[in-house]
Each structure stands twice: as structure tokens, then as C-alpha cells.
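Supplementary notes (optional reading)

For those who missed the lab, this is the record we used. Protein: HAD-like domain-containing protein. Length: 267 residues.
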Amino acid sequence: MSAHPDLTTFDALSFDCYGTLIDWESGLAADLQPLITSLPASHPFRSDSHQAVLRFNELSEHLWATQPKLAYDANLAESFRLLAREQGVNVDEELEAAARRVGDGPGRWPAFDDTVDGLRRLGRHYKLVILSNVNEANIARAVAGPLAGTHFDAIYTAEAIGSYKPSLDNFRYLFDGVKRELGVDKDKEGLLHVARSLTADHTPAKEVGLRSVWIARGGDKPEGYGTGGNYEKLQAEGKLGFEWKFQTIGNFADEVEKQFAEKGKAA
């Protein structure tokens, strides 16, 4: 029998999208190249674009907090401009075009290799929901593009909600939405949250009593913390409450299928 807690009792899964389903760090790193290549050869971003991604993310999160009504495409474009100016780079016509391209990046960035197949398998057992900090236009392009072949029963965006995770308002919106639209009651443990980001998803999930699965994608090791948060620090502070950990959506789907088979539950 499985060593993991029972996964067969839930009715729906809510997913963070970017970092969990979509490889946003790699996509963003590629879109930051026009800025990175304009920096001196000795600049740290030239040898390690991940540092640029981390700093970009800090600027973006600051905008989440200070301008929660700003749509995500505008947030990304402005974060690009802020990063350029911070590094002493003039945002000329070419870089302004690059900033706008970053803004539509979430609709283009690739899904992880395990995502689509994993979601198809999970969709045989649960209703699937997205709770994302993205804007409506970008999530529509992502669902039609990198996530094509999957089905979501509901999608809730920061643009529709009017705030960004980790705001608890986003999770309350999720709870109200799935109960009203899908008949799924979080208070009856019908909903399970699935996410990579510790800071944007798992910390608030614990605050609101939402059970969760961590899709670590290497973030359980210091060299892989990335934009998802410092696992060791957050764990020591008692801010995490996820009950399951898998490296990928594919690994998670494997365990779900195993548990349903063990219980003799049909898909």
C-alpha cells in the first residue's frame, strides 16, 4: 500500500500554473536575453541568467503588493523596465519591444515535459482548476497553446480577482468559485491545492487551512530554490503545511493512479 496519505478522497485539484505547469523560469530567462546581452561582459547576469530571473521576480512581486490591480502582462513589462534601469541600461526602442514581449510571455512559455500527460491522467479522477497570478489573455493563450490537450473545469486569474497571491483574497475567491460552479466544498476537504511556489501558494494555503501538494521541481535543495522560496527557512519558521511532495506533476499522477488502483476505484 502507498506510504503517502490518501489522495482518493478529493473531488478537485487547484493548480498554480507558472512554475508548476509552465516552465516560467526558463521562458523568462530566454525573454530577458535582450537586456542581459546589453550588459557588460563582466556583469553577473551574463554568466548566470538565473540571477536576472530572481531579481526580476523580486521586482514583479513588489509590484504585486504595491499595484495589485495591475494586470500581469503590464506587471511583467514594467518589471523588465525596472530591471533595466536598475542595471543602468537605457530602455530604447529595441528594449521596449522586449519588455512588451515579456508581457505576453506567459502565453508562449513551454509546459514542463510531464505536465500535459500528467494533467490528462489526473483529470480522470478529479475536476481540475487553475488559480494563477496571470492575466486573462495570457492564460487563454497558454491553455490553447502549451497546455493544449488538457481540460480545466474552472480558471481563476489575478486579473479577475483584483489581487495577487499570496493574498488570502485569491484563495477565498477560489473557494467561493469551486463551491458555486463545481459543487466542491473546501471545508469538507473536497479541494486539494497543487503548486511549486512555497511563498505564493503553500504559505497562504496553510493560513487558510487548504490541504496541499508540493511539486518541488528541485526546490527542496538550496541550489534549486529559485523563485519558489527558501524551503529550509520557511519550514523552520513553521509556515509550510503541505502533506505530499513530488518532484513533478507526472510523479504526482503516478501516485494518484496507484492509490485509485489499490482501492479498486475506477477512473
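If you only remember one thing from this example: The chain has 13 helices and six strands.
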